[in-house]
Amino acid sequence: FNGVASLGVKLWDMTSGSVGQYNVDTTSGDTRDAFSLATVNATLIVQSVNDFTVLKLDGESNATNAQALFQENSVPVLVCPSVVLYDDDHTTLKSAHFLLTSVQDGGFEDLAFNTTGLSINETRARNSASLSVWLVADSAVTVEQFKNVIESLTYANTAVEPTVGMRRVTVTVSDGLNPVAAHVDITVTAVNDNVPTLSVASATLVYTENEGPIVLAPTASLSDADHSSIFFITAIHVAVVEPASSEVILCDTALAANLSVASAAGALLITGNMTVSESIALIRTLEYNNVADEPLPDHRVVRLFVEDSDFASPVVEIPVAVTLLNDQQPVVTLGFAGSRNFSVQFEEEGIDVALVSAAMNVSDDDSGPFLLQSAQVTIANGQDGANETLYATGTDPAIVQSYNADNYTLSFVGAATATQYQALLRTLMYSNLADEPLPPFERVVVVTVRDENFESDPASSVITIVMINDVPVVDLNGDGIPTRDFAVAYTEGDGSVPLAPQAALRDDDNTNLTSMSITLSPRPDGQLELVTVTAAGGVTVTETAQGLVLNGTA
Q1: Are the C-beta atoms of residues 461 and 471 closer than 8 Å to each other?
Q2: What is the four-CA torsion angle of 198, 200, 204, 207, rounded to 10 degrees?
Q3: With a threshold of 0.70, does the pTM exceed it?
Q4: What is the rounded distance in angstroms from the CA atom of residue 64 to the CA atom of residue 170?
Q5: Are strands 205-208 and 233-240 parallel, antiparallel or unpaired?
Q6: 190-199: per-residue pLDDT in tens?
Q7: Phi and psi dihedrals of 126, rounded to 5?
C-alpha cells in the first residue's frame, strides 16, 4: 500500500485486555474503562519506493553472471539461454542494452536476438573494440518479453580464423528508473581445420659427384592458416624415391636440437612441435648428399611434406639431376683371375698365339656413360721387323684398328664401351714368320686403354720364343742349283775324282757341326772302292763298311 491513512490513538492502563488482543471496544465512555475517553487522531503518509529489477543471466545456477563458449566455424551460440528477470514494482521494462567488449575480429563479430512482434527500437554503434546495441520499448514491453529477448541473444564470429580469447557481453535492463547489469564471458576457441601448404622452387637441382651436399629447398615457403601459437607442425618428412644406401638427407642439427630426428637411407623424419616459422627455417636447411664414390647416374626425386596434428600437406617433389665425373682410371688385365699380366710360348716357325687369356678384362669404374677412346698394343722389344706382327681377329664397327710395323704397334681408335674394347682385345694374336727369330727370346707386349681423361696402367703379355734345332742341310750341287744331289762319272783307271766339288753345308741354328757320315752304296768292288776326305783339325775320320764317319766340332 502507498498513500494517506488516519489513525486514532487512546491511552491504555492495561487493567483489562491484553497485549495483542484484537476487537477491543475502546468507545464505551465509562471512566472506569481501561481506555481513555479522549482520542488523538494521527495521519500516516505511505510513500512508494522503486525496487531494483532482478537480473540473473545464469538462471540454472542462480548466478548473476554467465559463461559461454564459441568454437571457430560454429553456428551462433546462445550466450544466456536461461535468464531470471523480474521487477516487483513493474510488469514492463523500458529498455535493454547489450555491450560486446574485447572485440578482436571487427565486423566478423556480431550479436543477434529475436524481437519479432515487439515494439522496440534498435540502435547499434560499433568501434574497433566494441559493439553497442540499444533496445528501447516504443510501447509497453513486459518483463517476460524482455526476458525472452535476452534469452535469444546469440554471439557469432565469422572470421576464417577468429582471434582466440575472451569476449564480454554486458546486459543492462532498465525500468526507466534504476538500471541493473550482468555480464556473460564468452570464450572463443580455435579449430585445426586448415591443411598446411608447402611449396618449393620448380627448378631441377644438380648434384655433382663427390662435390658435397646440395641444399634442397632454400626458398621453400610454408603456410598454415590455423593459429600457429595453438596448433603446431608436428612432422617434416623427406625421402628420396627408391634411395640407394649411399644417399643421405641432412638438416641443421642446431635448429633441430629440441626435436626428434630419425634418419634412414635417403630419408629423414623430424618430429616435435614446431611453429610454421620454425618449420620453414628447418626445411630451408635440408640437404641431399651421396657418399658413393660412383653414384648411379639416374635422376633422383626427393619428396617432401609436413604434418600438423590433423592434416598432412600435399607432397612436393624436388627433382635432382646427378652430374657424374670421369674420375676413374680404366683398368686392363690380361691374365686369369684378375691377374694384370699374361705369359705365352711361341714356337719358332709355329702357329700364331693368343696374347691374352680368355678371362682378359677391360673395366672402367666410372658410373657415368663415359666411353673408352682408344687402346694400344705394342711389342716393346720387337726384333724381326715385318716378320713380327700383332693383329686382332675380331672387329667392331665403332673401333678402327691399324698396325705400324715400324714400331710394332697395333692401335685401336673409336668411342666404345669397355665391353666392346674387351671383346676386341680378347682376340689379340702374335705372329712371327722369321726362320730364326732374333734374340732376346722373350718379347714383351704392352697393352693400354684410354678414356677421355685417363690411361690405364700398362698390362704386359710376355711371349717366350721357343727355338727349334733345325736339321742341317747338305746341298751337293751347291747354292743356287735347284736339286741337292750331284752326279759324277768315273772311268776305270782314272784314279781319285772329286765327288761334290761345289757342295754346301747349312745349319740355320749353328755355325758348327759335330758329325757327318758318308756312305758308298752299292759297293760291288768291296774294299777296292774307296771314299776319302781331308778332315779339318780336331775332326776324326773313321772308315766303316759303308763308308766314312767324321766326328768332332768344326
Answers
A1: no
A2: -90
A3: no
A4: 11
A5: unpaired
A6: 999 999 999 9
A7: -130, 145
